[in-house]
Amino acid sequence: MAGFTSDAILFRKIEYGDHDYIITFLTENLGKVSVMAKNAKKSVKRFQGALDPFSVMNIECTYSKTRKNALPFLMSARLEEPFAGIRTDAVKTGYASYWIEILNSYLEADKEQIELYRLLIDSLAALDKGLIAKEVLNLLFQIRFMTIAGFSPDFVCCGKCRVPIDRIREGNVVFDFKDGRFFCGKCADRTSETGIRVSKGTLKQLFWINNNGIQKAERIRFSPVSIREGEKLLEAFVPCHMGREFKSLGFLRRVRS
Ligand SMILES: [Zn+2]
Fold this sequence. Notes:
40% helix, alpha+beta, 2 domains, binds zinc ion, de novo design (two linked rop proteins)
């Protein structure tokens, strides 16, 4: 194959020498791909200002004829959706950077992952236009990501006695982000360091948005308490299961407060 074209979202752009960039994209057709953009610092015409963070573009790449393991060359990038509303807003930038850092660390190179591509595009579009409250969108992105990645938490029954959430009398339960399960008052391990107290209502709302996706998310009303609990829960659960800290989460927390 001589090359490929695909819609893509820019993940990361690193300077390489005086003139070039190495750019990592999440592409629709090939998953995460790193490419060499020769003379991109000077060649405004070829890329038409398309190489900005968070924008969606159609890229055209070719493979090196002489070096088998060389990065593909980025020949052109045509801007399709600038999502300029994100770049001009520090808090929106914080959310978008966090989502991209999660996907960039999770995805392997050259492996198509269309569900995560769609989740990111739809989340960026909603963030750009302000269709859904940013905080709710962030909960939705994280819970959907965890489900697609196969770390789906159990919000239905107590992780030990299996009593369904609706039949638990107490208003609060303990969600253990290491186990990805919650425990009723009788079963919760009080000494666990990875348990967070949350209301049943918060878990039920997270369960609902996970199953209904972005299109219906604007219908749900999260109380300020549920937003705070959901943030605390998911922003511990995601890094714990990925086995790493996210730099962008520190930035997000600073701009958000
Ligand atoms: Zn129980």
